[in-house]
Amino acid sequence: MTETDTLYLSARRHHEAGRSDVAKEIYRQIITINPCHAGALQMLGVLAHKSGETSAALELLKRAESEDPKNPALLINLGVVTREMGDTAAAKVFLLKALALDPKQSMGHFNLGNLYRETGHFLAALDSYEEALSLSRDDPNLLHNKGVTLRELGRVEAAARVFSEVIRLAPKHAGALNNLGVIFLEQGEPETALRILRQAEKLTPSSAETLNNLGLALVETRNVIEAGKKLEEAARLEPSNKQILKNIGSLDAKVGNIPAAQATWRRALEFGNDDGLLFRLSTLLPVVASSLEEMNAARRELDDSLQEMARLDCNLVDPYVEVGASNFLISYHDTNNKDTQKHLAALYIKACPGLGKAHCEKRHEYSRVRVGFISRQLQLNSVGRCFHGIMRFMPREDIHVTAFTFSKGSDPLWSAIAEDVDQAIILPPRLGDARKIIAKTGLDVLIYTDIGMEPLTYFLSFARLAPVQCVLGGHPDTVGVPNIDYYLSSELQEPIDADTHYAECLVRLPGAPTYYDRPELPKNLKSRAEFGLPQNGSLYFCGQTLFKIHPAMDNWLGEILRADPKGYILIPAGFTPGLSDRLQARFERSIPDVVDRVQFLPAMSHMNFMNVLSLSDVSLDTRPFGGGNTSWQAIAAGTPMVTWPGRFLRGRYTAALYQLMNIEEPVVYSGEEYVSRAVQFAKDCDFQRHVLERVAERSDSIFGDMCHVNALSEFILRVARD
Fold first, then answer.
1. Residue 297 and residue 324 share a domain
2. For an engineered disulfide with 129, which of 146, 150, 469, 486 has Cβ 3.0 to 4.6 Å away?
3. 550 shares its domain with 668
4. Residues 221 and 278 in one domain
């Protein structure tokens, strides 16, 4: 054995034992003796690469190759280094050459798979990983990268199974935990995602990617304050990461901090062009406006921004991913939104022409008309409660009903809906895949229960997925999307000029606005004290979400409290920290003399909400966007709900219900009358009792009303067979 052989064996022992510095010195000693020693050159290259000295590593490895050109392991190392330096063509040559020499090099297949994945050749990457796994079956890193590729191919269920297997083999594999958490988050199971991502954070507390994903999971589980901390921590670790900055801006927008959202998004644009972010900035509106002036200014800025967007050449591949927001808050302005919504939809189609593509597949001649109802909200919330009955009571002898939603999380109302329809499908939360699945069901009519509440169904509605497409009033405003044919509304709610409010063909159906089951009330009412409510004085309950409390309402609320010096206004604060603080600050400016008698209630369960509603003397409807669920709930609870009908559908639900019962007193037609009637209900016991007795006698006419269901089914059968 030569001197260099002895030295090389010694160096390798030190190298394998982790004593890299000692090994490096011996490798250098060998090179001094024999500058052409391929093994020493290769190992020095490997150590240089490990130390981040990529250029030096490449030079050493190429010198080694000139001495030993048929060494597969050396060629694989060259492939890895050249790929990291951005020369994917050279990397591919090295890796293929290595595998031609020795097809059983699992790391060669692994690194070739990495190269294919990074260059967007996902099927080829998957094949390479499968080859590698056939040689190293239980390698967690191989499995992990296979899972990543499956997810990029849209095969999410398979990816989740692979990541779960990685975690079984290597419970502390942070990458698999992170990716599995993201999948659960995307599939609508944020609590599960949060648990998994917290495990990943413990393993990699300085991973910006994990902190970012954890922040998103915290947002979805309503842990907004902690979410902000995690996202800010991620941004400190990677200050030029545009996606993290976009997520911080989205959180700022959610909690109503509009200036912060704008500043963060503009900073994100400094790190690269982003047309999706331009759309977000252009459509940003205050959640709780600080004043009527701010609301009006924001609306003018919106219209100006859309005009500017029309002059730009924007391009979007997937607006749901790139924009991720609908123009939801525009509906809370007291304006006709038809032209603005049409303009925005046209801009999206211009930026992404494929959005409006027809996906209808060839249909069979079914004996029953096939109708689909779709929403992300078919759960225990307002939309699910409003439209469950319509799906349940469609005439099954003539109509086959499919319900579509997106969340896989356990929900009792979705479970009930799934039992009451012919077919229930949970769609993947991805536009392309969801479109394909809906198209394959062969629908005659597709009905969105709501469009505009969230981005997924908004962008899905652009596609032609059925010959006839409609939207119900789950979000009571025009959509403006060309492929929505009909807006299905109620003749009791729509004003005379309503046709001018819609881009869609307006259909006025008779009866109550939907089929609504009489809500369950608490069996044993808790007392005022148990909710921390004032023991004496009148309680005026304004049980709407905070963004429904228009700045124009402040004066009426103030006048109610001035007219009733012992009265209190109760407002649920909701689940988004910060919004109630903004509304409180606005009240301190607009009604400072009585703001101490406005009480914000902490977030509460549905049954506690019904309890407080039952304890209250009066329920206050909001204007211009009024109650829906809360109107039925107030009537069921025996609490009079004072309403001043607005100019549009979204402010006329409550009046329609009272009209159906032929009861006039709760419906007023001016701000002054709104104030006086609310106080009259609270202070005049005989007046209140007289009205509520008639409500109790007639309320059956608004609960379980089949008139709307029958009219809707007749409409469906007519348009499907035309």
1. yes
2. 146
3. yes
4. no
Measured CA angle at 265 (ends 263, 267), to 5 deg: 70
| 477: CATH | 3.40.50.11380
CA distance 179 to 171: 14
- Residues with Cβ < 8 Å from 413, sequence gap 6 or more? 378, 379, 380, 384, 385, 388
Residue with token string 């900055």: 245
Whole-number CA gyration radius for the chain? 31
- Going from the C-alpha of 631 to that of each of 127, 358, 624, 636, the distances in angstroms are 58, 39, 15, 9
CA angle 211, 322, 233 (to 5 degrees): 20
Which of 236, 251, 279 terminates a domain? The answer is 236
Distance, in Å, from the CA atom of 386 to the CA atom of 631, rounded to the nearest integer, reads 11
Asked whether the bond before 624 is cis by omega within 30 degrees of 0, the reply is yes
Nearest Cα to Cα of residue 428 among 296, 521, 320, 506:
320
Residue 254's domain comprises 242-338
Please identify which residue in the block is written with the tokens 């730009």: 312
Position 1 scores a pLDDT of: 63
Domain match, 59 and 169 both = yes
Indicate the pLDDT class of residue 178, thresholds 50, 70 and 90.
very high
268 and 384 assigned to the same domain = no
Q: What is the pTM of this model?
A: 0.90
Does residue 712 lie in a domain region?
no
Kindly state whether residue 168 falls inside one of the protein's structural domains.
yes
The predicted model gives 559-581 an average pLDDT of: 95
- Write the CATH number for 681: 3.40.50.2000
Strand blocks (E) in 458-509: 468-471, 486-490, 505-509
* Mean of pLDDT over the chain: 93
Q: Please compute, for residue 14, the number of CA atoms within 13 A of its CA located in the half-sphere on the CB side.
A: 17
Do β-strands 486-490 and 468-471 pair in parallel, antiparallel, or remain unpaired?
parallel
707 lies in a domain?
Answer: no
pLDDT at 364: 67
Same domain (yes/no): 199, 71:
yes
Q: What would the two tokens of residue 678 be?
A: 């609310």
User: Are 265 and 273 a contacting pair, CB within 8 Å?
Assistant: no
Domain total of the chain: 4
Angle at 151 between CA 149 and CA 157, to 5 degrees: 125
What integer is the mean pLDDT of 371-389? 89
In three-state secondary structure terms, 616 is: coil
Interval 431-477: pLDDT, tens:
999 999 999 999 999 999 999 999 999 999 999 999 999 999 999 99
Do 149 and 96 sit in the same domain of this protein?
A: yes
Residues 372, 375, 379, 383: is their CA dihedral positive or negative?
negative
Q: Which pLDDT belongs to residue 358?
A: 86
pLDDT over 70 at 646, yes or no: yes
CATH code (residue 111): 1.25.40.10
**Which tokens in the block code for residue 592?**
């400072």
Q: Write the pLDDT tens digit of every residue in 666-698.
A: 999 999 999 999 999 999 999 999 999 999 999
pLDDT in tens, 7-59: 778 878 888 888 888 878 877 887 888 888 887 778 887 787 888 888 887 78
pLDDT of residue 68 exceeding 80, the answer is yes
| Paired sense of beta strands 445-448 and 641-642, if any | unpaired
Under 8 Å CB-to-CB from 30, ≥6 apart: which residues? Answer: 4, 7, 8, 11, 37, 40
The three-state secondary structure class of 575 is coil
Torsion on CA atoms 638, 643, 645, 646, rounded to nearest 10: -120
**Residues 465-514 pLDDT 10s:** 999 999 999 999 999 999 999 999 999 999 999 999 999 999 999 988 89
pLDDT reading at 379 higher than 90: no
